[in-house]
Amino acid sequence: MIDKPLDGVRVVDFGQFIAAPAAAQILVDLGADVVKIEPLHGESARGIGPHGEAMVENYNRGKRAIALDLKDPRGRRIARELIARADIVVQNLRPGVMDSLCLGADRIRDEHPHLVYATVSGFGLHGPSRTRAGLDIAAQAESGLMWVTGEAGGEPQKIGAQIVDAATAYVCAQAILAAYIRRLRTGEGDTIEVSLLDVALHLQAPNWGAYLATGVEPVRMGNGQPTVAPAADIMPTSDGSIVVSAYSEVHFRRLCGLLGRPELADDPRFADNPARVRNRPALLAELHSAFATMTSAEAMEMLTGNGVVAGRINTYPEAMRSPDVEASGLFIEVSRPDGVSTTALGTPWHLASIPKTSSAGAPALGQHTTEILRELDYSPETIRDLAAGRVVGLAR
After folding, report:
1. Beta strand pairing status for 359-360 and 331-335?
2. Are 59 and 18 in contact (CB under 8 A)?
3. Is 3.30.1540.10 the CATH number for 233-321?
4. Mind listing the pLDDT tens digit for each residue in 93-109?
5. What CA–CA distance (Å, rounded) separates 12 from 144?
6. How far from chain centre, in Å, is Cα 128?
7. DSSP 3-state assignment of 48?
């Protein structure tokens, strides 16, 4: 039996979609017993097709699931009984819903001061948008993240994944763990608030730092960096493309030598970083012509073997076949409720005390309802009555 850091810790997860369920998923992988509470029809992600099913599968592995009608007083009573036996509550329901059910942070923490209660919202709980529903894309838009993403002169672009949702989950889990450590020391729980908007702003700390220091607004410029070159610039090869950063004087001179173009390092247009930034189009034209004769593998071997930062731009299948990704063990085999084995993403960290292994997949809707109610001392007859009255949902 593996002794995990959060063995014995109980978590009640009211989350939907990504941010809150993903935060609770981190706690699962650290050993916590996480009970996922869903409405009888299932959490919202279950009803939006393959993309939603992917959210369910990858952010709810190893949880136990109970289906409850929280609009029914008997369903709320079950939820309160679960909370009373828990250490941590996580939720990201539409603002005001938990309060309307008498399950909000203020009331629950008054009744159970030992609890760590974490709320994820779109725009925070104190400003004029506190009651707005919030999704990743709205936070990308309103934080300025979309404004700086895209080609120069083109329209703003979203990032190609729900990066704000995922980052918010990590921030929320970090805060939960800090509050729980404090609880171990003092016996007192805590109330945690994390918003997608705050996280989206914080993800741009270098941009915001430069803006606050200079007053100069960042602008969309596609690939590359505004103040250094070459940096995060795309180099097409004969069979694909790579991204290269070699803006320090040592690395730029080394890059020119490796490409057989040492004279570029002494060209007045490229003699120092400010000059390279001013003459970026001419610089990229020279570099593109040199890389166009190589395959991506040849370019990567040449650059990384000599300490120049570069990365091959992979498709999803190529990324999955990467020897580094394979060695990481990030993709794991999980067992679905129907017994079929499938591949999912594990948690992107390694603890020496927790080996990477296969695990249970996401639970089916209501899969553990009976088991959880029996732990709360409900009799089989009472459970049948609650199911018949549509207060709880049992596994199909």
Report:
1. parallel
2. yes
3. yes
4. 999 999 999 999 999 99
5. 34
6. 26
7. coil
The percent helix, strand, coil of the chain (3-state, each to 5) is 45, 15, 40
Q: Which residues of 279-310 are buried (b: 16+ CB within 10 A; e: fewer)?
A: bbeebbebbeebbeebebeebbebbeeeebbb
CA separation, residue 265 to residues 137, 224, 246, 248 (Å): 42, 19, 12, 11
pTM of the model: 0.94
Assess contact for 122 and 196: CB atoms under 8 A. Answer: yes
| Confidence at residue 209, expressed as pLDDT on a 0 to 100 scale | 96
- The tokens describing 69, both together, are 């009608």
Chain-centroid distance, C-alpha 136: 11
Q: For residues 341 and 74, what is the distance between their CA atoms, to the nearest angstrom?
A: 36
Domain with CATH 3.30.1540.10 in the chain: 233-321
Residues near 226 by beta carbon (within 8 Å), at least 6 away in sequence = 218, 219, 277
Length of the chain: 396
- Using alpha carbons only, give the angle 370, 8, 110 rounded to the nearest 5 degrees: 85
CA atoms within 13 A on the CB side of 363: 25
CA distances from 387 to 76, 231, 302, 365 (A): 14, 60, 65, 14
Question: What does the pLDDT look like over 143-181, one tens digit per residue?
Answer: 999 999 999 999 999 999 999 999 999 999 999 999 999
- DSSP letters along 312-377, please? E---HHHHHH-HHHHHHT-EEEEE-TTS-EEEEE--S--BTTB----EE-PPPTTTTHHHHHHHTT
Q: Topology of 10-202+328-393 in CATH?
A: Rossmann fold (3.40.50)
- Tell me which residues are annotated as active site: 165
Instruction: Check the CA dihedral 270-275-276-279 and report its sign.
Output: negative
Under the banding of pLDDT at 50, 70 and 90, the label for residue 358 is: low
Q: What is the pLDDT of residues 71-84, one digit of tens each?
A: 999 999 999 999 99
Delimit the CATH 3.40.50.10540 region(s) of the chain: 10-202+328-393
